[in-house]
Amino acid sequence: MGTAQPACIFCQIARSSTSTVLLHQDDKVVAFQDINPSAFRHYLVIPTEHIPTVKDLKRRPKDFSLVNHMLHVGQGLLQRDAPCTDKHRFGFHQPPFNSVDHLHLHCFALPYIPRWRAIKYSSLGLFGGFIEASKLLERLRP
After folding, report:
1. 65 φ, ψ to 5°?
2. 42 an active-site residue?
């Protein structure tokens, strides 16, 4: 955990090694539009440090602070770019349902487009699926 992975597309984006337009960049995270958006606005916020999945996060101040920062960045972007929508959703896929092995927060300004895409972002209880950012923060709170 931590070292940039040359083959990881999100590590490349975090290092600005691609043509991806960054919506936000700071010392901890970068944000950009999902290449296959599932909602009116669909952004991803990723840590600049390579962290494979939510399963690699621990109940400690560092990880809680990172996820909290990711959430605040995503909220700010949606407030800026989708001020007319009041339905937002924020969360993470859990293994084995994550598509890229680099932690990433999905930030949605709803509705889902098309509507059936909501299924992809459902919790599957004990089997994982999608976890809301607020639930993950509860798990990580030191």
Report:
1. -65, -40
2. no
